[in-house]
Specification:
The structure is a homodimer of 228-residue chains. Helix content of chain A is 45%, strand content 16%. Chain A is an alpha/beta fold and 228 residues long. Chain A has a seven-stranded mixed sheet. Chain A has a two-stranded antiparallel ribbon with strand order 1-2.
């Protein structure tokens, strides 16, 4: 697995390739050139070849990529065959939506249990995943290996839950709390965090909308002026 | 608003600055140096100064940034004061979670209505947002200005809903469908998309977990060997 010289940007493109290859498989496409793959993804063929060359030789000159073989290689690069175990903490709306709608197993993750503090939901389950008492988390982690915690607790509990997880040996967090969990005092090798920052994404969208509107307004003004 | 020479990477850091500044305000911090801001965000002071310099002069040499003033500048850069209007399409678990938990108004968006095809939820509402019949969407868009559509429909309906939106003048989509909506045949200026790709994020996390595990295993093996 170790790919010490591969940049984060390359890694982050891998899931996108995987999704595209799944789409191609569904559409009955069995072989694709880097040119066509690039066209469909808005990337240059040379960037695609360069990305894959970080991990070995997958394609064949003038012949393209075999979709299923490339898909298997990327799945393996991403460690989808490793059987990660996960727990979810905080069964509010977003936690519930993930438990009911997000297919963890499709992506190689086994969601083992969820944890919450609300007595009325402890002992119930969503899609077969039992909701356990948050107070039993340290005990659970002593008895069960957990690779990843999906963190959906309210903002105010984000940092304390991170600390509890790290203290009990969980060093990877899928973070839905909108709080920055990586702080300068935590060494990189001790904690891996991937964030879903809804607001960051929406704010970027807002920026691009305004930018487009201003562009159009400026063009219209220019046109107006030239036709005066 | 127009900032033609600002890279997307700079834009995408702006919401992160905004979140940090909100945290600082909450913590009662009124002034911060680029050095301290950088330390807290894992960025270099010069990168921070460079990012802000794209938009004008916000700080004062040797004096730092005024937190509330900088926050206001960034909010304005992002267009949060423009009063964007939004609709949500597809009130399943994720759509529901967004309607109930995500504070659109905090980020400058006015969520006006939601749309779905299920008769049993049409006419009901979440947090005061009414769920309207999907069949009435074109009519609604003819009568109401909408900047952004939040797309939470099942995968199979993603592309057809995008086309319906574009046909009716909505050219910005916040995309939760896990389907690529930007395709080579759609010019950039005609459609802006921001994606929340849950699986991409989780797969990247998986990669970094495996990478860390392999690193540790390799170090342990080396240590073992050297103590033989």
């Amino acid at each position: 697995m170790k790919h010490p010289n591969v940049s984060n940007n390359v890694i982050r493109r891998m899931p996108r390739y995987l999704r595209k290859l799944d789409e191609l498989t569904e559409a009955g496409v069995s072989r694709i050139s880097s040119g066509e793959l690039g066209r469909q993804l808005g990337l240059t063929p040379s960037q695609i070849r360069q990305d894959f060359s970080c991990f070995g030789e997958f394609g064949q000159q003038g012949y393209g990529y075999k979709v299923t073989a490339l898909r298997a290689e990327i799945a393996s690069i991403l460690g989808m065959d490793r059987g990660y175990s996960a727990i979810l903490i905080g069964v509010g709306n977003i936690g519930q939506a993930l438990m009911c709608n997000f297919s963890f197993s499709t992506w190689g993750f086994d969601l083992k249990a969820a944890f919450d503090v609300k007595p009325e939901i402890i002992g119930t389950n969503y899609e077969g995943i039992e909701i356990l008492d948050m107070a039993t988390l340290p005990e659970y982690l002593a008895d069960n290996h957990v690779d990843v915690a999906v963190l959906c607790v309210p903002k105010a509990h984000a940092v304390s839950t991170r600390d509890l997880l790290m203290k009990n040996g969980v060093c990877a967090i899928w973070n839905f709390t909108n709080v920055e969990l990586k702080t300068p005092d935590i060494p990189n090798e001790n904690l891996v965090v991937e964030n879903i920052h809804f607001s960051d994404s929406l704010l970027s969208l807002g920026y691009f909308v305004s930018y487009n509107n201003d562009e159009k307004a400026a063009q219209a003004a220019k046109l107006n002026k030239s036709t005066l």
